[in-house]
Amino acid sequence: MESNRSYLSYSQYALFKSSPKSYYDKYVNGKSYKGTKAQQFGKELMIDLEFLESSELVPNYLVDIAKTCYIEQEVTVQPKFFDKNLFSIIDAVEKDYSVIYEIKTGIKPWTERDVAKNEQILFYALVVYLTKGIIPTAKLIYLGTKHNEDSSVELTGKSRVIERGFTLKELLDFEKTLLQTCIDISDYEHSVVSFGDSVDERLLRLLSEQKRIESELSLLKDEIMLDMKDFNNKYAESENFKITLASRKSYTYSESLSEEIKQTASKFKILKTKEEKEGVATEKVTEYLLIKPKK
Yes or no: is domain 7-191 CATH 3.40.50.1010? Predict the structure, then answer.
């Protein structure tokens, strides 16, 4: 199955980069993820800012910026060789697109290093360059927040503006990265086989039945074991089964020997890894199904 999105956003890019499976669950299977209160706080701030509402949530200087900018500006472009558009919603951008603003809230302050390696700002700068032909400057506005005892979020009053410039090479290199990501996403989507409702229903029914049977079997074994212990007997039988009350010994060794065993195991692990890397060890691949229910 393929994503029903005809575009690649930064959120999609970042999620696929961190977890292809989570990307597939969200953008192909349509699984929804509940946002945190901190994320909801950020969304509410942007809504108030879009309508130029100065409040406890939106500082006056942000409202001043909003008066000269497009707020939550959508920018879409399809670069050469891409089979998808690049789509972005920029928090704020000057009307001549010379400066883009990214507004971040959070407990941990942002630093110049954080901004320099932030790919979200780079994504937005690339989209502006591809649509407008100019290389913008970025300004990240950090607004400090805190969590109250009732789990609500509010601004602390601490803020910082960090600027970042871009080079043409930096933008073009990132464009290549996004192109490869589009290819990787397509390959991954086509590598996942989707089964129909019939297989899904049978699998669900059989695994549920298996769980019930294993639970019932475990209880029955406990019952038989208690009966045999009551009669102080190691053997029992029924019409179809011979039953033996078996036992297995285990030992807890001295601290010194346990430590020696641990060190020996560590040495063996190193030697095994060395042979695997050097190709001395013979590799054997066993395929099996790992089936997990979706949450």
Answer: no
